[in-house]
Each structure stands twice: as C-alpha cells, then as structure tokens.
Amino acid sequence: MDFITTHHIIEAVGWLAVLFKLATFSMNSMIWLRVLVILSSVCFIIYSALFQIWPLLAIEITLLSINAYRLYELVALRRLVTHMTDESEADFSAAMAYGKKRVIQSGDVLFEKGDPVDSLYYLAEGLVEIEGQNVTVPAGNLFGEMAFFNSSAARMATVRCVEDTVVYELNEKRFTRLQYEDPQFAMAVMRLVTKRLVANAAQTQGA
After folding, report:
1. In CATH, what number is assigned to the domain containing residue 170?
2. Disulfide engineering: 145 pairs with which of 1, 28, 120, 135, CB 3.0-4.6 Å?
3. Cα 14 from Cα 48, distance rounded (Å)
4. Can you give the residue range of the structural domain that contains 107?
5. Residue 3 CA: distances (Å) to CA of 6, 10, 30, 49
6. Same structural domain, 99 and 186
7. Are residues 130 and 190 in the same domain?
C-alpha cells in the first residue's frame, strides 16, 4: 500500500510537469514562460530521478540551467529599463570590443554625404564635426548610426575630424551582434536614436 501511494505521488509530479509544459504555450510574457519551463523541469527532474530515467534527467537538468540563465537575463534587462532615466549617462564603450580600431588625422573626412552606409562609429578619442549641421561629437559617443535606420541607405551628412581621432568601426553584422549580446548597449542606442530623431524633428519645425 505504501508503494502504491508513493508511486501515485511520483506519477502526479510527472503529470504536473506536463501541465506546466503545456501552460507555456498560452504565455504572452517571456518571463512567465521561463518560470513555467523551469517549474516543469524541476518536476521532471524529480520524476526522472525517482524512476531512474537517466536520459530524461540529464536533458531536464541541462534545460533547467539554460532557462534559469535566460530568466536572469530577462529580469536584469527589465530592471535596467526600469531604472534607466533620461539623465543617466549612456555608455557605448562596449563597441571597442567589437569594432575595428581606426586612427584618423585632424582634418580628414571619415565619410561624405551620399556615401553608402556600411558602418557606424564609436568615438574613443578626439572630436568630429557633422558638416552642414553645425554639430560636433565629443569622445564617448556614437555617430553614423542614424543611416542604419534610414531606408535611403546613404549618408545624410559629411563627417570630418576636428582633432586627431580614434574611432572603432562596426559594420551592420557586428552592430547587430553587439546589441543582442549586450542589452544595456542596445537600450542606450535606442535612446540615442530616439533623442536625435526628436531633435531633428524640432529643428525641422523651427526652420
């Protein structure tokens, strides 16, 4: 009788794991989806360990580790978005780990208006000027990113180095990879693009 009771409890844990797994298909929230998958894996781990189903145990332990890490990333990203304010200083320095370093002399043109768009730039040292807009970009900023969000796929202005300059050049593939691997960088870029679009719209209305 004790064996049957224990057996039924283990069976119930297995069915509970199935129910958690099925519930994931009705989730719209990625966080809750990960939570349910983790609960399902925990139940399957208990079930497979007690019934000694070793392949299932190995798979579920692996899935539990992966989903726990993904859940941590999602929660960290949500916390980052929640605490990011308009006054918080954007940090684009992660671009140095992905970009190609270039050293450019004062007075040289980095790209001209109408050039095809193939890269954006992180300005590590120096100062550049966006000609025709009376705008200078100091070190620590991105520039050239707006063209990636423009269907014309052509540079909208000429950029000239005012000082000896060090930039890190990122092509579209590296830029996309960096945004995926560093959510904080991706959020900073989104805020930068939004800020510059608002500024451009204000200038257009004031013209």
Report:
1. 2.60.120.10
2. 120
3. 8
4. 95-206
5. 5, 11, 39, 16
6. yes
7. yes
pTM of the model: 0.63
Q: What is the residue type of 192?
A: L
- Two tokens, residue 142: 């991105």
- Classified as helix, coil or strand, 119 is strand
CA distance 86 to 99: 26
Query: Could you list the mean pLDDT of each consecutive 10-residue stretch along the chain, which spans 207 residues?
Result: 73 96 93 96 97 96 97 84 63 92 96 90 96 90 82 83 96 89 84 81 68
Domain boundary among 83, 117, 139: 83
Query: What is the C-alpha separation between 169 and 1, in angstroms, rounded?
Result: 71
**What is the three-class DSSP state of 88?**
coil
Residues in the chain: 207
Cβ atoms of 159 and 131 within 8 Å: the answer is: yes
The reply to whether 60 and 105 lie within a common domain is: no
Residue 37 is assigned to a structural domain of this protein: yes
Shared domain for 105 and 66, answered yes or no, is no
